[in-house]
Fold this sequence. Notes:
13% of the residues lie in helices and 34% in strands. The chain has 4 helices and 24 strands. The strands form 2 sheets. Strands 3, 4, 6, 7, 9, 10, 12, 13, 15, 17, 19, 20 and 22 form a 13-stranded parallel sheet that branches. Strands 1-2-5-8-11-14-16-18-21-23-24 form an 11-stranded parallel sheet, covered by helices on one side. The longest helix has 24 residues, at 2-25. The protein starts with a helix and ends in a 6-residue tail after the last helix.
Amino acid sequence: MKTLIFLLFTHLLAILPLYAVEEDHHADATVSATGEEDFKTVQEAINKAPQTASSEKPWVIFVKPGTYAERVYVQREKRHIRLIGEDAATTHISFGLFARMKGPDGLEIGTFRTPTMTIDADDFTVEKLTLANSAGPVGQALALRVDGDRVVFRDCVFTGYQDTIFLNRGRQYFQNCTVRGDVDFIFGGATAWFESCTLDCIRNGYITASSTPAESRFGFVFANCTIITSPDIKVYLGRPWRPFASTIFINTKMGSGIRPEAWHNWDQPEREKTSRYAESNSHGPGAQPDKRVPWAKQLTQTEVEKITRTEVLNGWNP
């Protein structure tokens, strides 16, 4: 019996590398920081991706471990691409622009010219990558901007301080991701569903700053997520960047640093009448429903049952 187990074990060790090779082989293009593969930068690989990919046959770009110090722009025509890293812990795309940095004209470049990665294409997927803005605590500095529709992120890490990810428009789905920052580090007017994600609050601030249009039923929805804070940090769940901001937390574990009132009106009391903030089954030391601001809502079971992923994403099921 021991001999049989030993033989099975050695056979498994022998074929494991084949699985890794096979996975790599199925990539249409491979990026390596050392220049040993098809491309040395992620941007080059995206630029060379054909415009003939489809949902049935997406173009797969595999990114080998390393730190890629570059800005990446995915133009609108580059649909149906899967950008897959080896592992978010070892595969990083990082850059360090920030809003108050001076451009060639001598003027500040502004918030929206700082993203490390900008995705303007629909039907784009990112997996197992870290996207970072390395500028530090110097004001607005984006790791990610998304303008595309049906954009998916799985097993990714996003790191920054203020304005880490900007979801401008469209629909996005995040699964098993970590978002790290301090002030308004998830913001924008898109509709996004966050499933089993970790929100890592590294300084005092605000987690969300949604700018949901009045005609959009949903903005940001966090389901089965975890909010991490240290005891000395105090954060709000959100504040309304625009009057009809919509943010919902469902079954989320909240750290002790969540302020009891949870929501801030951005010093504009009139937004208390239009903002759409809600929770359901928040738990952990930061969950204190009886101390929340009176203009935020605690959802009933009937109400929360209607807030499904497909409903929020308007029929899209990623």
